[in-house]
Write a structure and sequence with these properties.
Layout (H helix, E strand, L loop, with lengths): L1 H22 L16 H7 L2 H34 L6 H13 L2 H19 L7 H27 L2 H8 L4 H29 L3 H6 L7 H8 L6 H27 L1
Helix pairs in contact: 2-11, 3-6, 3-8, 4-6, 6-8, 7-8
């Protein structure tokens, strides 16, 4: 019975993905109409400059936003996980975690109003584009990184740091040689989570990006009005293959360790 329930759950999750991947190899342009096996749409994808540029922009923004989110969120998580009680801790923690519970529509509108107000007061940023999109995604990702880092610090205790301090290490040395290496797995996990959140975001991007900053999710979402295209199916297969290879490489590396 347990195996049947597991198979049903996996089928519910993966059936739409596998169906979409199968029709990426169909000769017929009409979606969900099988026209025989063909690599036609992968060749068309290689020549679709607009989609490739949007994918490259999404990767660039996601990597930059994840890096900024890791720096900011790591600092937030370290303060919350290592500095005990201090004045305003409750408010500080609530504000740091607010993006986790606020609807993205509210967050996107608030960021849009902030960028507009800053432009009117200081002249920066000029319009909406890659920079505003990067900052918006970083602000969302930082909240997730902070939660991951705080949980890591809360779970590992202070024993090693106290032992290093007893042996004469200063606060900076303790942080660099003990705390930071112990935080490294959570920072890496937070970076990956922030990267994925940025890469597939539509709501925040629709509020904070401009005409010259069309990401891949925005492009695909705009194309859905006319129906999904075979090139989008082919791109999804490429992304699945890359993700699968990444998971396989990580699994092989962890087994070797």
């Amino acid at each position: 019975m347990t195996r049947w329930v597991l198979a049903l759950g996996l089928g519910f999750l993966w059936a739409p993905v596998l169906l979409m991947a199968a029709f990426a190899f169909s000769e017929n342009r009409q979606p969900f109409v099988w026209g025989g096996f063909s690599w036609r749409w992968f060749v068309a994808l290689a020549g679709n400059e607009r989609m490739l540029e949007a994918a490259a922009l999404s990767l660039l923004v996601a990597a930059g936003a994840a890096s900024l989110a890791t720096l900011a969120g790591g600092a937030l998580g370290w303060v919350l996980g290592r500095h005990g009680r201090f004045a305003g801790r409750g408010l500080f923690g609530a504000l740091a975690a607010a993006p986790l519970v606020l609807p993205e529509v509210v967050t996107g509108l608030a960021l849009l109003l902030l960028f507009v107000a800053l432009e009117q007061l200081t002249g920066w940023p000029r319009g909406r584009g890659v920079l505003t999109l990067l900052l918006a995604h970083a602000s969302l990702g930082a909240a997730y990184v902070a939660v991951v880092v705080q949980g890591r610090l809360a779970g590992m205790g202070r024993t090693l740091e106290e032992a290093a301090a007893d042996l004469g290490a200063g606060p900076g040395v303790v942080f660099r040689t003990v705390t930071l290496p112990l935080m490294a797995p959570s920072l890496a996990a937070g970076w990956g989570l922030a990267f994925l959140l940025s890469f597939d975001d539509v709501v925040l991007a629709s509020f904070t990006s401009g005409p010259g900053a069309t990401t891949l999710p925005l492009l695909l979402f705009s194309q859905l009005r006319m129906g999904p295209t075979p090139e989008a199916h082919a791109l999804a297969v490429v992304m699945l293959a890359v993700a699968g290879l990444g998971v396989a490489a990580w699994y092989a590396w962890s087994r070797r360790r």
